[in-house]
Amino acid sequence: MIAEDANQGLADKLYLVKYEIDEENCHLIIKDEETCRRCEEKPCIDRCPAEVYRWVEDEEILEVAYENCLECGACQIVCPYDNIDWSYPRGGFGVAYKYG
Amino acid sequence: MSESEGAIAPKFDVIVVGAGPAGVAAATVCARAGLETIVFERGRKPGVKNVMGGVLYTRPTAEVFGEFWKDAPLERCVIEQNAWILTEDSAIKLGYRSRQFAEDIPNSFTVLRVRIDEYFAQQAEAAGALIINETKVDEVLQEDGRAAGVRTGRPEGEVYAPIVIIAEGVNCELTKALDMQSDLRLEDAASTVKEIIRLDREVIEDRFSLGPEEGATIEMYGASTQGMLGTAFLYTNQESISLGVGVLLADAVKDHTTPFDMLKQLKQHPVVAPLIAGGESGEYMSHLIPEGGYNRLPALFGHGVMVVGDAAQLVNGLHREGSNHAILSGKMAAETAIEAHEKGDFSAKTLHKYRQRLEKEAPTMNDLRKYRRATGFMERHPWMLSLYPQLAADSIADMMTVDPETKRTKQWNIVKDVIRRGWIPRMVWDAIDGGRSLI
């Protein structure tokens, strides 16, 4: 447990969340990387509550840290090109809240 | 039982997908009637995937779970409900407090979903339902145009039943695959984040003037969402506070503030900060709330299938009611399943009675219909949560400030300011459309 502090970043908060990470399967699939390159807004990045999506400028690629996913589903709705093949993680995997 | 463990019987009377309040309510009622009922839950136990504000309403819950408040893991009985309108640095506060809410049948309780969902699941199991955890349903199987069972992620994971009740939650993968509803649009869902902030029981009771077991709720409008369509909330639990904020995705995408930053700003608000001061972060979570309302209802039933709870978008966002409609819809789907088994007819002809029950025996459909214009209201009046909070706060601050000006002059200054800004036509339109949408 960490003292509540306005300076705490998201990483501190995600550290408190329990996950069962599925090492074999990524449940958030970018259908076409080229589409992300053309996408100007990339709303998935700002709308994700867990910073799962990150644009890597050098490689021009959208990095997907699916292991941090809180399974809310916002990204697939905000994607203007319907470019995220979204599904829940396999049974037993993903986020496991303590309080909810 | 989990995906990795042994095989399960291939045939049941009813399959329920999802062990949230809707699914577990459905399973409990089916099992009590003697139907062989199986529930698939993708979490490692019921509750761990679930997020809610969370206020649980007693009466609808009691229709399935009896006098649950006598032994369920509840947080606090809500005796005080507040609505605050925030500007950047002030708040207008309106509240109602009464011990009546705690007497006889208490009106509502704050809850933590992981704890309460596990309790409800135990009731379903006690009634005879089989709950299979760590198992995701990948597909609803169809035979001759009717739902006939499900395919799960388990080895030999096909299970059959003449009725499938889908309680998969807001991200409606299965019902979309069945063409019972289309993709959610930006207008159909609010993105919500919440944090559990741990505080000593005595500190909570002091800060909110509460007795033991007594709870308070605060809904916050205006600057809490930076004028975007949404609300923030603060609920008192036994030894923690649930603090959260949600914004309709259609509004949220216009701004670069992330959900996390919005929550952070809420915690720093001068009116909110003292209430959570000294607390410890317990958990951070996120969830989508269905906001499409009546206009966005999916097909609620088909041949051999019924859709309940968030999956059916049965949420009254304006009154922060969801779990009550989830539980009632689960109950009514179950009663329809029982009737179908009695008749031996699982077609839509029998299952349409589920929708009839929701119309006649629960407030769900009537309430959603009543507010069918409300979902579009804020889109037509996007200034509601920025213009009025600031105007009202400024006016109150002015009237309360004692200085050489007379009260009459102060009043006139407010009116003149409104006229000068050209707000009168807009306010008339707000009032007329607001009346039509909300009353």
Summarize this structure briefly:
The complex is a heterodimer of chains A (100) and B (439). Chain A has four helices and seven strands, in the order βαββααββαββ.
Mind explaining what this structure looks like?
The complex is a heterodimer of chains A (about 100) and B (about 450). Chain A is α+β, with helices and mostly antiparallel strands and about 100 residues long. Chain A has a domain at about 30-95: Alpha-Beta Plaits. Chain A is about 20% helix and about 20% strand. Chain A is built from four helices and seven strands; from the N terminus they run βαββααββαββ. In chain A, strand 4 and strand 5 (about 60-65) form a beta hairpin. The longest helix of chain A has 6 residues, at about 10-15. Chain A is globular and about 40 Å long. Chain B has about 450 residues and is an alpha/beta fold. Chain B has three domains: about 15-75 and about 110-180 and about 300-360, FAD/NAD(P)-binding domain (3-Layer(bba) Sandwich), CATH 3.50.50.60; about 185-290, D-Amino Acid Oxidase, Chain A, domain 2 (2-Layer Sandwich), CATH 3.30.9.10; about 375-439, no CATH class. Helices cover about 35% and strands about 25% of the residues of chain B. Chain B has helices at about 20-30, 60-65, 115-125, 175, 200-205, 250, 260-270, 275, 325-345, 350-360, 365-370, 375-380, 385-400, 405-420, 425-439; strands at about 15, 35-40, 55, 75-85, 90-95, 110, 130, 135-145, 145-150, 160, 165, 190-200, 215-220, 230-235, 240-250, 280-290, 300, 305. In chain B, the strands form four sheets. Chain B has a seven-stranded mixed β-sheet. Chain B has a six-stranded mixed β-sheet with strand order 7-2-1-11-18-17. In chain B, a hairpin with a 2-residue loop joins strand 8 (about 135-145) and strand 9. In chain B, helix 1 (about 20-30) runs parallel beside helix 9 (about 325-345). The longest helix of chain B has 21 residues, at about 325-345. The radius of gyration of chain B is 23 Å and the shape is globular. The mean pLDDT of chain B is about 95. The interface between A and B is large, with 44 and 65 residues.
